[in-house]
Every structure is written in structure tokens, then in C-alpha cells.
Amino acid sequence: MKIKVLVIYGGETTEHEVSIISALQAMSNLDESKYEVIPLYIAKDKTWYTGNMLKEIEFYKDLDNNIKFANRVVLLKKGKSFVLKKVDGLFNKEITNIDIVLPVVHGSGIEDGSLAGYLDTIGVPYIGSKVLGGAVGQDKVVMKQILQSAHLPIVDYTYFYDNEYLEDEDEILNNIKKLGYPVIVKPATLGSSIGITFVENDKSIKEAINEAIKYDNKIVVEKAVQNLIEVNASVIGNYEYQKVSPLEEVMGLDEILSFADKYLGNSKTKGSSKGMASTSRIIPARIDDKLTNEIKEASKKVFKLLNLSGVCRIDYLIDSKTKKYYVNEPNTCPGSLSFYLWKEDNLEYKDMLDEIITLGIKDYKNRLKKVKSFDSNILNGFSGSKGVKGLKK
After folding, report:
1. The whole model's pTM is what?
2. CB–CB of 27/51 below 8 Å?
3. Which sequence spans correspond to the domains of the chain?
4. DSSP letter string, 211-256
């Protein structure tokens, strides 16, 4: 009997389209001899849809017209099973049961532990980081504070909220000036390089801050690394063990690897996107063995420290002259699930998916062994100040 894998993607996020690309890649690479693949697309209005047509990229090119052919559904627990239930029409028909969920989601409001929390509440088995890992991985400020506490190397930074900038702009700008230009201005809880600006001097800092504030109420400003090399590592595992992929050196066309570099090829190129798999890169990264090993060991530490699980990608910044590296950020559900990095380690995409599904099943079985509640009912005989009479009013 095939394992029924529900692939969830989309959501109300600036990385909505990126999530679609990553999910379609994953669905097309799941081994159909082992798995029955069921898509669950979350539209930007947060409505949930399923249907085989959702597996095709053409469906999304005319989404407004095509979405009426998909089934609106909810995911719920029924007895010991988990089911997708249709909510259109007069009859709430059950469409299928689910064995395990593969979230392929990017961005705040969904990758940040929000979806994981919902899945935990239902109790359905799923693959990847739980609530804490997702939340910490999404918030660049909290993540930096945790990494600092563990003495892992990060760049100098400052952060502030949008109201603080509006109330005392001069103080915020002075704190940024103390960092020293150039700096990188980022929304604190977004990914895919959205809203990020490289700023060389104070003439354009206000414009960069206003751009970031469009997307987030918390802004982080980082000291830019000189002689920059960007290197990424993918990690597969859980709290018990971690393994690290070959390192990639990413080749951005701008001062930083932009959204266009990652998902459009570049800002001047047209055509269909292959997600992060289309980014210009060199594998293995052109750094020495000593630095490579240091980054791989750091990746395991970051993965475990931040409560990550499944497959993640951890990004690094390197000063090529000093050979000093800095942890930039983790991606708890990376673009294209970082399959291209594991391919360099002779692990094909379908086999990588097998591995993280096995991890998800193992994690679920381990959690079932833990005590979740007690049989005693503390409400039995409880009267409170008003008792049952108060409930009847």
C-alpha cells in the first residue's frame, strides 16, 4: 500500500509563488511506486484547495479562472485517521485520508511555525521543523540572539521596530552609522531576499529602511562583509543526528544574492523559473578544506541549536581575505528543498525525499511514546464561583 503524502504549499506570503515552484518540483520527484501524492494549495486568501490539476504549472498561469475547478477542503482528524474533507456544495464529502504531510512553504505567516502549529494541534504526522524551529528560523533578530548566546560567529548588527524609527529617526540612523557603512538592510522575518537593500552610505539609508518597512514591522541592519563570498550548506537530520551536504558558492549579480538571482535567473532574463536550482553556483565552494570543515561542523551546531528538522539550508558569509565566516541565516524550508546540493553528494532528489519522509515518520512514532495528557479530570466536581448556574445564563 502506498503512503499518502499531502504536499502543502502557497499561503498568504510574499514568497507565495516561490513556494509553488518548490512544491511542484517536490511533487514531480516523489517516487510514485511508494507514494500517492496529494497537493494542498493554500491560496493568498488562505482558502485551501486540492485536485490533481494543481500538480501542473499551467494551472497557476490563469489561476483566477482555473481555481474554480479545484476542490475547497479542510484538513481534520477523524478517529485515528486524518482526512481531507470537501467544503463546497451541500455535502461535505471526504476526499481522501492522509498518512503524512510534507510542507513546502516559504515565508512569514506559514513557514514561521504557523503551519507547524496547526498540524501539531490536529496531530497529523509531518516532515520538517516544529513550531519553535520555524519561528526562530524566520526571525533574523531572535535567531542572531540565540547564535550569539552559543558563541557562533555572526556579523555586527542593530535592529529596530517601525514605530521606533518613526518616533526617533535620528537615534536609529546614529546606531546604523556606528556599525559603519556599507550595511545590509533587511525585513527581519522575510526570506528569498525580498525587501533587502545594500547601502553604501547614509545618502540612501532612509530609502532602504522605508523599503524594508513595506514588508515588516521589525528591521535588521547588518554590517556588510568585505571581500564577500556567499556559501550555503544543506543539512538533513533531527536532534539525534545531522549530516551536511557539499557546500555551494552562490554567484549573485548584485552585491547580495537577490530575489531575481534566486528565482528569475537574473533581472534581465525571461523564461520559466527552476527556483533555487537555477541560481548560478559553484559546487564545491572554492574555499580550503579547513574552512569547509569548520562550516560543516557549524552547520550541525546551528541545526541542533535552533531545533531544526527535516531538510534545511544554512547560509554563510565569508571574508575571503581574513577567511573568517559568519552564520547568515537558516532556511527551515529552503527553496527547491536544496535538492541540487544533495545531488552533488550522489543523493538523487527522490531518495532525499525518501529520507526526510522516513525522518518524519520516525519523529511521529517517537512523539506518540511521550506522555501528552493525564486520565484524571480536574473539572469533575468543580463548581467555581458560579458553578453550572453561571453557564446557563
Report:
1. 0.89
2. no
3. 3-126, 137-153+225-365, 157-223
4. HHHTT-SEEEEEEPPSSEEEEEEEEEE-SS-EEEPPPEEE--SSSS
